[in-house]
Design a protein that fits this description.
- This protein is mostly helical.
- It is built from 4 helices and no strands.
Length: 129
């Protein structure tokens, strides 16, 4: 998933274009994006207590999708409200945000792998006893 996301970010930076929403639809997109991030973050914290790897993984995936939604919101806002005479700024912001999202998604995946490996080893040691 992270490789596909990195390719999409590179394409967005290379093309220097963004989404364009008609009328006030961008405000609806903004409200949805912020709701998705807040809801996903709360769910990740809430379901972490249950120590259920399937539920936790599902919530982390929804958080990754919400962060991609924020990235698409940024490109839409830069396309609609940004000046056309500053293409470097648009490329820099899209690249920085996209790179940040990719790093965070990769970090979440590494954390989930490390945690699951530790739990599997713990269960294996416990079953031998």
């Amino acid at each position: 998933m992270n490789i596909a996301l990195a390719v999409i970010v590179a394409f967005m930076v290379h093309q220097n274009q963004g989404y364009e929403y008609p009328g006030t639809l961008i405000y609806v997109m903004a409200a949805y994006s912020f709701y998705a991030v807040i809801s996903a973050a709360v769910s990740v914290v809430k379901f972490r207590r249950y120590r259920n790897p399937i539920l936790s993984a599902a919530k982390v995936i929804s958080l990754a999708a919400a962060m991609v939604s924020i990235l698409s919101l940024e490109t839409a806002m830069l396309a609609q409200f940004g000046n056309d005479d500053t293409p470097f700024f648009r490329k820099a912001m899209t690249g920085a945000t996209g790179g940040g999202v990719c790093v965070i998604v990769l970090g979440m995946a590494a954390y989930m792998l490390a945690t699951s490996t530790k739990e599997i080893k713990k269960l294996a040691n416990h079953s031998r006893e």
